[in-house]
Amino acid sequence: MSENVSRLGQIIVVCAPSGTGKSTLISKLREEFPNFGFSVSYTTRKPRGDEQNGREYHFVSRDTFVAMRSQGEFCEWAEVHGNLYGTATQPVVNMLDQGKDVLFDIDVQGAKQLKKTFYKGTFIFLLPPSKEELIRRLTSRGTDSEESISKRLANAEGEIAEAGFFDYWIINDDLDKAYEELRAVFVAGACKPELRTDVEQIIKKDWGIDG
C-alpha cells in the first residue's frame, strides 16, 4: 500500500436481473465518480472489430485460461456461450492498495465467487418494482423474441431468489431515487473502518491507541 493513500479502495459489486436498469445506474455512478479502477478481463473468445489485446480484453487460448484458473489466478470467472471470461485477482488487489475503488457489473454467480476472495466488498442487488413492470420493460424494447424474454424472466426469478446474499437492496422504480440510494451506499462504503488508513493513523499516532 502506498504511504500517500488515505484509504484503501473498496470493491463495489452490482447485480440485477436483465431489464432492471443496472447499466443506466452504473453509468450515472461512473459519470459522477470517474476515478474507478478498471481491470481488463481475460477471455477465450476471438477479438471483434477493432478490439485490441490488453485494451478491451486479454485474449488468451482456452488452455492458458484453464491453467490460470487452476492456479487460482481469477477472483471470478464464468463460461458464456462457450467462451470463458475471468478477472485476474492481482490487478484488482493492486488497485485497491492504491486507493482506487473497483466496480463489478456481474451476475450472481460471479458475485459469490468475488465474496470468497474480497469478503469485505459492498454487494448491491437491484430489483424491478414488480414482475409486471419487468415484463413491460423487456417487451417494450422491441428487440427480444418471446423465447428470449421468457428466458430472461426465468433467469430473473433465479437471481431474485438469491437476493438475500447481498448487503443492500435497491428498487429501481424511480431512477433518480434509485441513483440516490446507490450513491449513498457507495459513499458510505468508503467510510468503513477497514478502509480508512488515515483514521487508523490518527488513532494510533495522536491517541496512542492500538486496535
UniProtKB/TrEMBL annotation:
What Gene Ontology cellular-component terms does the record carry? cytosol
- Its predominant location is cytoplasm
What are the protein's UniProt keywords? Answer: ATP-binding, Cytoplasm, Kinase, Nucleotide-binding, Transferase
Domain named Guanylate kinase-like is located at 9-187
Q: Where does ATP bind?
A: A16, P17, S18, G19, T20, G21, K22, S23
What InterPro entries does the annotation carry? GK/Ca_channel_bsu, Guanylate_kin-like_dom, Guanylate_kinase, Guanylate_kinase_CS, P-loop_NTPase
Instruction: Please tell me whether the keyword Nucleotide-binding is annotated for this protein.
Output: yes
Q: Which Gene3D superfamilies match?
A: Guanylate Kinase phosphate binding domain, P-loop containing nucleotide triphosphate hydrolases
Cell location: Cytoplasm
Q: What is its EC number?
A: 2.7.4.8
Determine the domain of life of the protein's source: Bacteria
> Which CDD domains does this UniProt record tie to the protein?
GMPK
- Which catalysed reactions does the entry list for this protein? GMP + ATP = GDP + ADP
- Pfam families the record matches: Guanylate_kin
Q: Which top EC class applies here?
A: transferase
Q: Which GO terms describe its molecular function?
A: ATP binding; GMP kinase activity
What family classification does the UniProt entry report for this protein? Belongs to the guanylate kinase family.
Q: What does this protein do?
A: Essential for recycling GMP and indirectly, cGMP.
Name of the featured protein:
Guanylate kinase
